[in-house]
Amino acid sequence: MGLNRREFLKIMGGTTAALAFPGVMIQGCKKALEKAAERTNIIWLEGQSCSGCSVSLLNKINPDIVSVITEHISLNYQGVVMGGTGEAATKVLEEAVKKQRKDFILIVEGSIPTKNDLYCTIGEDFSKHRGIGVRYWVEELGKNAQAIVSVGSCSAFGGIPAAKNKVTGENPTGAISVAELFKGKKTVLNVPGCPPHPDWMVGTLLHVLLKGMPKLDEYNRPVMYYGKTVHEQCERLHDYKRGIFAKNWGDKGCLYNLGCLGMDSGCDIPNRKWNSVNTCVDCGSGCIGCTEKPFPEYGNRGIYQNLQALKPADGKKGMEV
Questions:
Q1: In the chain, where are the structural domains located?
Q2: pTM above 0.85, yes or no
Q3: Fewer beta carbons within 10 angstroms: which end of the chain, N or C?
Q4: How many helices (H) and strands (E) does the chain have?
Q5: Per residue in 133-184, pLDDT tens?
Q6: Measured between alpha carbons, how far is 39 from 33 in angstroms, rounded to an integer?
Q7: Which residues on adjacent β-strands are paired with residue 109?
Q8: Euclidean distance between the first and final Cα of the chain, in Å?
Q9: How far is the CA of 198 from the CAs of 69, 202, 203, 244, 311, in angstroms?
């Protein structure tokens, strides 16, 4: 696993890592990670999600995710990448609950359905001839886990699966966040994003492995990744300060008037970038606020409230969407 000092610092948020891990800098972060990982197992469950967080993690470049999984952590269960299926796979979860294992970190992707155990079933209760819902597994495994980490905005805040029907005002599956499931019982560490940057997931895991719980903000997000707004770090900040605002998509200038939510969203994407190449705002799409609790509904603010269909050929105003 080629995790050198520079790569470690980048993943962990630059100078934050140097202050938080002085011992790691001395002995070598690779050696420290290997030592910590020897005693740590990972169980990763998926609730109501699109698997986008898993896909984002698989796009991790340095260190590459294959090295992380095969050499440095014991990934006991993960629906997307594990080789086992059916009873062979669910037996891992059954044994962990039965033996009340306490030697693992529980990672949850996706929101938790609460209205019926038929949603997001993992395995089957043969004595009752019915599937076992993900809520059961998260509750039972979470009781004894060393730490519970929510990856993605669906797991952290409910996200899109928790959206309410505009007519009935209800959610069909009763989807809630993992934090709501453990409210008043355990602290759940949130790593939101749609999807989260792979560095945020790996870096948070590294912090938990090597030093315990990182410093968290009011939404239980690691401050080292979510402590500053997109606006503060934005590539177009100089346009904002000069009063230059884009009027249409594709124009130069600050995208605030088109619904960019960079002022309301905390994350370090402008500095970290996706695939070390580009960012949402720099490519012209604007920030959609995917790391924040209100996502995807922002009332009268946001890109979705500011989009307009193109005018038809007869010159009449297009329909707002």
A1: 5-226, 228-321
A2: no
A3: C
A4: 16, 7
A5: 999 999 999 999 999 999 999 999 999 999 888 788 889 999 999 999 999 9
A6: 11
A7: 46, 151
A8: 48
A9: 14, 6, 8, 33, 39
5-226 CATH: 3.40.50.700
User: What is each CA distance from 251 to 11, 55, 242, 254, 286, in whole angstroms?
Assistant: 33, 32, 15, 9, 12
Give the other-Cβ count within 10 Å of 287's Cβ. Answer: 28
Residue with tokens 């989807």: 175
Cα-based distances in Å from 69 to 96, 99, 135: 20, 24, 25
**pLDDT tens-digit series, residues 225-243:** 999 999 999 999 999 999 9
Contact indicator for 41, 106 with CB cutoff of 8 Å: no
The fold adopted by the segment(s) 228-321 is: Cytochrome-c3 Hydrogenase; Chain A, domain 2 (4.10.480)
| Whole-angstrom distance, CA of residue 178 vs CA of residue 156 | 6
